[in-house]
Write a structure and sequence with these properties.
Helices cover 30% and strands 26% of the residues. It is an alpha/beta fold and 376 residues long.
Length: 376
């Protein structure tokens, strides 16, 4: 939580008051080290929703509004201030755009608050104003945010995730025991699951075609029982990560790799995972099609975008439009090649699109849609 003093542009209340910054104008430099150039950067919508009503009862009002982030006071000319006023900007400060860009790029939870006062908490030459400086009221706002967003006991659920779950309803990722479901599937069936491959031939070919170098960071999403990282390690790749919601699946990677390849293992649901770094390649064979709700699909898409380097590439495979309607007892969302391109959106350039018929260990057929794409 960041709280900064701010100048008033378009009034939201009688000073002093706080502004929960929902959008920040990127009129500074630091945010551009984290994200490609855009005019605005925003508070995460799930955080914004989770904070509804959090400030009720505080002695100093907290309003929602837009801020102009600039990196030097000399930019705050009369002309610039008037231009900001015409755009409906409520406050000017020096931090929010950079912090929200950092949050989006690194998948962190950041909330920015602007404290708007008539005199910026300074009265003439007196900088030591005690309680009148607003510090106690600032702490009250920070406490309200912490109380709303931080579970108060280890066994309580994440309030941010709850807001997402409320939107998802009966989606696969809203059902309790997702990890247990897949742990049971892998423990009971081992490699005898419908999507198993001895050698991931198509994936390896697409990865080679995309020009992924041996030292490039690679993540295989849902790849716990896949042999993709084994094959890549054998080909000299040195920066490999596997993410899977099933600890049982990841345990098989540990046993196979032993003291050999240095493979990073992450036990997490992709929809709640917060990446700590960026990857050159995002590989997903048969995870995306389990994400059936539009809100979760958008969350996945944003996570993919945030987790990739600026020259990142993706390889994704899902059930084709004539593929199975469910898998392992869960419903799926099927995609045609065109629908998969549309899902990735205009920021990605398709390199290869193809259909493939996968033969399961018990000789049934499953139709898959594949895409290999790179950032534009």
């Amino acid at each position: 939580v960041s709280v900064t003093s701010a100048g008033r542009i378009v009034p939201l209340d009688s000073p002093p008051y706080f502004v929960l910054i929902t959008e920040a104008l990127r009129d500074e430099g630091t945010s551009h080290h984290y994200l490609p150039p855009t005019e605005w950067v925003s508070l995460d919508p799930l955080l914004a929703e989770a904070l509804d009503g959090a400030f009720d009862g505080l002695t100093e009002p907290v309003r929602r509004g837009r801020s102009w982030t600039t990196d030097a006071p000399y930019r705050e000319t009369e002309t610039a201030i008037e231009a900001a006023r015409r755009r409906g900007i409520h406050a000017v400060e020096m931090e929010a755009a950079a912090l929200y860009a950092y949050a989006e790029a690194c998948s962190r939870d950041v909330v920015c608050i602007a404290h708007v006062t008539n005199d910026m908490a300074v009265d003439g030459d007196d900088f030591e104003k005690g309680i009148d400086a607003g510090t106690h009221r600032i702490l009250a706002v920070v406490t309200a945010i912490a109380d709303r967003l931080r579970p108060v006991a280890d066994d309580e659920s994440d309030p941010i995730a709850e807001h997402g779950a409320a939107e998802r309803g009966a989606d696969n990722h809203a059902v309790g025991g997702l990890a247990e479901h897949w742990d049971r599937a892998y423990s009971e069936h081992g490699d005898d699951v419908s999507w198993y491959q001895d050698v991931p031939t198509i994936s390896l070919g697409l990865i080679e075609g995309l020009g992924v170098a041996a030292g490039d960071p690679v993540i295989d999403v849902g790849g716990g029982r896949s042999h993709l990282v084994d094959e890549l390690a054998a080909r000299g790749h040195t920066d490999l990560t596997v993410l899977d919601v099933s600890e049982a699946a990841l345990e098989s990677v540990r046993k196979r790799s032993g003291d050999g390849a240095d493979i990073q293992l992450i036990n997490a649901d992709v929809l709640t995972w917060k990446p700590r770094r960026r990857y050159r390649l995002w590989h997903d064979r048969a995870v995306l099609h389990f994400i059936t709700n539009d809100a979760d699909r958008e969350r996945y898409r944003k996570l993919l975008d945030n987790a990739l380097t600026s020259d990142g590439v993706v390889v994704i495979a899902v059930f084709d439009s004539d593929g199975p309607e469910q898998c392992s007892g869960l419903p799926v969302r099927r995609y045609s090649p065109r629908e998969l391109v549309d899902f990735l959106g205009p920021d990605f350039e398709p390199v290869v699109q193809k259909r493939d018929v996968h033969v399961t260990p018990w000789d049934t057929e499953q139709s898959f849609t594949w895409i290999a794409a790179r950032r534009r």
